């Protein structure tokens, strides 16, 4: 090895001892020369060593999990994600394009992953179906046909979605009817009453159609539709009863909660009497305990106005 680039006059390249390997130098060498030799060792080591891969770790942050999906699987995942409806609305800008491809820029798809990893309790996202023209967003199709679908217990989030759809449809066209399809086991009394108030307030007539089950507050919403526009499938089961509640806390708080529950029951019984034409005493007898009704019995009682005929 030649070190002609070194300006040190004391380096003897003919000696048997290499100063770069053992850093042994003559006694007369100054400390400045030794520092130069050490610098040469470091420079030579960096020049001949392979590139290093540096990894920095932290105890306060979790590393991003590695994806082991193949290229085709990743594309398939992107197609599925792209087929889900946008959480920001169903307009042409925020909705889905009919030309969905697995080769989309990942940056345009990444924000949608946050929608899939929703927190518990969020209303389920209505799926899309594949058609020859691409994925078809069911919620957009129903919305364009002025149909609102409720297929889960009614809580504050479901009520917010339904109310926003009712108000939007009324602002678009206040003369065309709206239909609410129900397959609902019940829900919060406050949330159902909020939906009913909105149904009564907007100008369009709001009809209701039940299939599967309309129980508890779901039955109240079914009966609260526009008179003459309340229907049920022949195999629908309807259940009405008094409201359920749970009380806890201080004695005075429990007393007030019980009074609130009693007032809610009286209000609901009066509403059933107005919806069905039955006397308040008859309604109270029906709602004293869980009362299950067939679609025909619900029609006879006055909860609905007609049956939608099917083959069976």
UniProtKB/TrEMBL annotation:
Which keywords has UniProt assigned to this entry? Answer: Hydrolase, Protease, Serine protease
Q: Which GO terms describe its molecular function?
A: ATP-dependent peptidase activity; ATPase binding; serine-type endopeptidase activity
Record GO biological process: protein quality control for misfolded or incompletely synthesized proteins
Catalysis: reaction(s): Hydrolysis of proteins to small peptides in the presence of ATP and magnesium. alpha-casein is the usual test substrate. In the absence of ATP, only oligopeptides shorter than five residues are hydrolyzed (such as succinyl-Leu-Tyr-|-NHMec, and Leu-Tyr-Leu-|-Tyr-Trp, in which cleavage of the -Tyr-|-Leu- and -Tyr-|-Trp bonds also occurs)
A GO cellular component entry from the record: plastid stroma
Instruction: Indicate yes or no for the key word Ion transport.
Output: no
Question: Which named protein is this?
Answer: ATP-dependent Clp protease proteolytic subunit
Organism of origin is: Brassica oleracea var. oleracea
By sequence similarity, the record places it as follows: Belongs to the peptidase S14 family.
Name the domain of life. Eukaryota
Query: Keyword Methyltransferase on this protein?
Result: no
What the entry lists under Pfam families is as follows: CLP_protease (PF00574)
* Residues of the active site: 241
């Amino acid at each position: 090895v030649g070190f002609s680039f070194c300006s040190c006059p004391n380096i003897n390249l003919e000696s048997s001892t290499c100063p770069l390997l053992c850093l042994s130098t003559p006694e007369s060498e100054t400390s400045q020369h030794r520092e130069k030799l050490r610098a040469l060792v470091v420079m030579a080591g960096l020049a001949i060593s392979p590139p290093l891969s540096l990894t920095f770790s932290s105890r306060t942050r979790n590393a991003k999990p590695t994806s082991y999906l193949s290229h085709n699987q990743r594309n398939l995942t992107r197609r599925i994600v792209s087929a889900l409806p946008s959480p920001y609305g169903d307009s042409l800008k925020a909705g889905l394009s009919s030309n969905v491809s697995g080769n989309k820029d990942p940056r345009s798809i990444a924000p949608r992953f946050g929608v899939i990893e929703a927190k518990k309790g969020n209303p389920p996202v209505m799926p899309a179906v594949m058609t020859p023209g691409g994925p078809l967003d069911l919620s957009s199709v129903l919305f364009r046909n002025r149909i609102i679908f409720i297929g889960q217990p009614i809580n504050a989030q479901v009520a917010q979605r339904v109310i926003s759809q009712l108000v939007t449809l009324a602002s678009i066209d206040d003369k065309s009817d709206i239909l609410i399809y129900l397959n609902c086991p019940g829900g919060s009394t406050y949330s159902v009453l909020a939906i009913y108030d909105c149904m009564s307030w907007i100008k369009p007539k709001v009809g209701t159609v039940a299939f599967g089950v309309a129980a508890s507050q779901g039955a109240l919403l079914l009966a609260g539709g526009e008179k003459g526009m309340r229907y049920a499938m022949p195999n629908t089961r309807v259940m009405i009863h008094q409201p359920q509640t749970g009380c806890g806390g201080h004695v005075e708080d429990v007393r007030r909660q019980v009074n609130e529950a009693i007032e809610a029951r009286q209000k609901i019984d009066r509403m059933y009497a107005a919806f069905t034409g039955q006397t308040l005493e008859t309604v109270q007898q029906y709602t004293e305990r869980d009362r299950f009704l067939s679609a025909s019995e619900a029609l006879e009682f006055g909860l609905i106005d007609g049956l939608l005929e099917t083959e069976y």
